[in-house]
Amino acid sequence: MDSGLTYREAGVDLEAAARAKARLGELVEQTRTEAVAAGFGSFGGRFRAAAGRELVASADGVGTKLKLAFMTGRHDTVGIDLVNHCVNDILTEGAVPLVFMDYFACGVLDPDTVVAVVSGLAAACRENGCALLGGETAEMPDFYGAGEYDLAGFVVGQIEFQAVADREIRTGDRIVGLASSGLHTNGFSFVRRLLFDRLGLAVSDSLPGVDASVGEVLLRPHRSYLEVLKGSCAAGVVRGLAHVTGGGIPGNLGRVLPKTLSARVRVSAWTPPPEFQFLSDESGASRDEMYRTFNMGIGMLAIVSSEDETGFRQVVEGSGCATYPCGEIVEGDGSVIMEWT
Amino acid sequence: MDSGLTYREAGVDLEAAARAKARLGELVEQTRTEAVAAGFGSFGGRFRAAAGRELVASADGVGTKLKLAFMTGRHDTVGIDLVNHCVNDILTEGAVPLVFMDYFACGVLDPDTVVAVVSGLAAACRENGCALLGGETAEMPDFYGAGEYDLAGFVVGQIEFQAVADREIRTGDRIVGLASSGLHTNGFSFVRRLLFDRLGLAVSDSLPGVDASVGEVLLRPHRSYLEVLKGSCAAGVVRGLAHVTGGGIPGNLGRVLPKTLSARVRVSAWTPPPEFQFLSDESGASRDEMYRTFNMGIGMLAIVSSEDETGFRQVVEGSGCATYPCGEIVEGDGSVIMEWT
Fold first, then answer.
1. Quick check: helix, strand or coil at residue B138?
2. A96 touches chain B (CB under 8 A)
3. CA nearest to A138 within chain B
């Protein structure tokens, strides 16, 4: 027996970490693609891009949506949120994902939790044709509450859709909204404050106006738009994409507009799903606040020519994603004009 | 006045975030290299690698060394730790860094803190010739203690040193240890438990046997070995590199050994700096535990041919890094044999 201070005594269990690592290795292996050049366990993951192709990288976190995973004990969806969020981000730059890496940090490592989280990451990586190249699992005593963790991710992709990358947007182009699958990963501090602190709801309560529990509605995974958009992007139909995340439509659509153009968005073109209506009614938040905080039912905005609009919508709807023709591009100054009536 | 619930009330201050973001943009701009293809503020950062070159990615965190930043109020060194850690990791795969992205998460965003952290990231990126391509700054109420944060990073590089990447290691090759600059980023949960909980020291106390305060010694930044090694790597002299992080020499040297070779490490070849001696004496930890938890004075191990050993050491010492000829490669099974006497 070693009577001295050991690393385990100091709160770090290297053996539990090793056991989890073996299971993580299997999950990672299932996501292997031809882009991956070397195996798991080295100091860095090797991969290849197509020769001369421009690359795009993005970092993101899940944010306080993680608290819903803690409250429900369901840890296999937050990884899907994270991967899809990252994939959507680089898609707006015309890129398809090659590799993904995660950062998972907790106070005390629970192997089942980390394996559930990584199983979500791996499932979403497979869906998006992206390799889970590895990551960092950090056990940090005194940083995270019992059963809590933080999760961040990094994606690298290569540009395949040049019109999207170059933002070939012109006056008269149409804006098409693609339906979100729920709240995605934004506005959760607001939601938690309202539903749990103010209204005193539990995750197992049914959400009024919605045929599902609070936990089910809030944990619905952030969808990836890669599969429903890649055909139209490859055909050169899509000229610009804006991922509706923190800041909502007004805060994100402007990020892809040339400085000489503006976007008019007709809010009446779609009806926000009932969970957004409930959040609006119960919070008393202003309309502006709601549309800056939440996606309000539209997770991605695509800009296409007026001639392509109908065909584009048919393709996307045929892939199982509802669309809303909700605006157009006009001469302007890079601003987003929300038309409320 | 809006009487409804606002995002700010829910603990997220978007304006403070925007102010910090502007200052971060300037810091990022200072790290721009020719690899960077597009500016700050888009959904993803664009960059280019040399055509056909294999890429390497790695993710890492700072770990509980962050607590020392919180205790001392000094936030401009942890970013250096993180970048240099990541750069060293991919160097062991023969890669030089192209771009770095960070993930910074806190409970309430303090603009001065995040700017100090990113100034450290940017300084280290400039030192390593790597662009700080962007990152994610997450404000997550109820996740982090007041004044606390977590910090993770992600690097992408391209392989330039093929002998290192291919691990062209042979029987009779020599192992040369390169001096660390202190504890680097490992063993901090152990250190905090011992120095603060057991011994009751404060960060401003002087560390017995060391002519500096506890805070100064513990916060010394993790050094990058890119500058002192790149000439020898480019000349094909270096055949293998192991970054001594969590797991110490026994846990990391084996990661780069072919399955048919083993490494003999003569521990008597160097004297661990006094801070390691102090940690050993005061903790009563076993020798094995000490060498698995800490780098013990050697932050990187290089494998070179016996003919190249002297010349290699002269070059590295001439660049300002002490070296220790501490072992050799023998026929074996991929194991690391620590020779204690």
1. strand
2. no
3. B63
Q: ∠ CA A139-A142-A146 to the nearest 5 degrees?
A: 80
pLDDT band at residue B333 using 50, 70 and 90 as cut-offs: very high
Quick check: A60 and B136 CB within 8 A?
yes
> Which residues on A lie below 8 Å from B5 (Cβ)?
190, 193-194, 198, 283-285
Tokens of A308: 């392509």
Question: Taking a C-beta distance cutoff of 8 angstroms, is the pair B261, B302 a contact?
Answer: no
Burial class (CB in 10 A: 0-12, 13-18, 19+), A195: buried
Q: How far is CA A320 from CA A227, A228, A299, in A?
A: 10, 8, 14
Residue type for position B195 = L
Q: Under an 8 A CB cutoff, do A57 and B45 touch? A: yes
Q: How confident is the model at residue B2 (pLDDT cuts 50, 70, 90)?
A: very low
- Measured in degrees and rounded to the nearest 5, phi and psi for residue B56 equal -135, 135
Nearest CA in chain B to A165: B46
With a threshold of 0.90, does the pTM exceed it? Answer: yes
- Residue A267 and residue A191 in contact, taking contact as beta carbons nearer than 8 Å: no
What number of C-beta contacts closer than 8 Å exist between A and B?
A: 250
Q: Which residues contact B140 (CB under 8 A, 6 or more apart)?
A: A61, A63, A64, A150, A189, B105, B106, B107
Burial of A37 (0-12, 13-18, 19+ CB in 10 A): middle
What mean pLDDT comes out for the span A246-253? 95
Average pLDDT rounded to a whole number, residues A143-152: 94
A292 vs B6: CB contact, 8 Å cut-off?
no
- Helix (H) or strand (E) run with residue B136 in it: strand B131-139
Tokens 């509980």 appear where?
B64
Q: Please name the residue of chain B whose CA is at the shortest distance from the CA of residue A38.
A: B56
Chain A partners of B38 at a C-beta cutoff of 8 Å? 93
B3 burial via Cβ count (<10 Å: 0-12, 13-18, 19+)? exposed
Q: Quick one: what percent of chain B has pLDDT higher than 90?
A: 80
Q: Dump pLDDT digits (tens) for A8-40.
A: 666 667 777 777 778 888 898 889 888 887 654
Mean pLDDT score, B68-91 = 97
SS (H, E, C) chain A: CCCCCCCCCCCCCHHHHHHHHHHHHHHHHCCCCCCECCCCCCCCEEECCCCCCCEEEEEEECHHHHHHHHHHCCCCCHHHHHHHHHHHHHHCCCEEEEEEEEEEEECCCCHHHHHHHHHHHHHHHHHCCCEEEEEEEEECCCCCCCCCEEEEEEEEEEECCHHHHHCCCCCCCEEEEEECCCCCCCCHHHHHHHHHHHCCCCCCCECCCCCCEHHHHHHCCCCCCHHHHHHHHHCCCEEEEEECCCCHHHHHHHHHCCCCEEEEEEHHHCCCCHHHHHHHHHHCCCHHHHHHHCCCCEEEEEEECCCCHHHHHHHHHHCCCCEEEEEEEEECCCCEEEECC
Determine phi and psi for A147, rounding to 5 degrees: 80, 5
Is A11–B255 a contact, with Cβ atoms under 8 angstroms apart? no
Interface contact B37, partner A, CB < 8 A: yes
Q: Shortest CA distance to A313 belongs to which of A229, A227, A236? A: A229
B48 contacts B99 by C-beta, under 8 angstroms: no
Using an 8 Å Cβ cutoff, are A207 and A333 in contact?
no
How near does any CA of chain A get to the CA of B275, in Å? 16
